[in-house]
Amino acid sequence: MGSGVQHALEQLKTTGVRITPQRHAILTYLMEAMNHPTADDIYRALEPKFPSMSVATVYNNLKMFMEAGMVRELTYGDSSSRFDANVSDHYHVICQQCGKIEDFSYPSLRDVELHAEQATGFKITGLRMELHGFCKSCREKQH
């Protein structure tokens, strides 16, 4: 069990959120799954352990985690949102063929944000950088 999960749960408790076994499982799954799962993915993975859990439960809990600032919703071209429990500064590389998303870290783009603020007068509160291409397995299939 990663210490990240424990830390996240401690954080939630301080905001007065009750940690149910389902919440614990959803958060743990999200933090360990590096593939930015959809709510359906999470539901399917946890259903055997929690037969009473519905997709709606998963969504409601994800919403609650997002409000607590612990989970980010990634909405890309396709209809289904993916969820990311890594809220540190990182960016995404997305495969145009299979839709796989991978994280990569890069020094903060704070200078880009400052430049944007000066040029536009906006107050920048966050950014999302996406790079598009073809993942290794899709490229191998093409040969």
Automatic annotation (TrEMBL):
SUPFAM superfamilies: Winged helix' DNA-binding domain (SSF46785). Keywords: DNA-binding, Repressor, Transcription, Transcription regulation, Zinc. The keyword Metal-binding does not apply. Signal peptide: none annotated. InterPro entries: FUR, Fur_C, WH-like_DNA-bd_sf, WH_DNA-bd_sf. The keyword Calcium does not apply. Gene3D superfamilies: 3.30.1490.190, Winged helix-like DNA-binding domain superfamily/Winged helix DNA-binding domain. It comes from the Bacteria. Belongs to the Fur family. This is Peroxide operon regulator. The lineage of its organism: Bacteria, Bacillati, Bacillota, Bacilli, Bacillales.
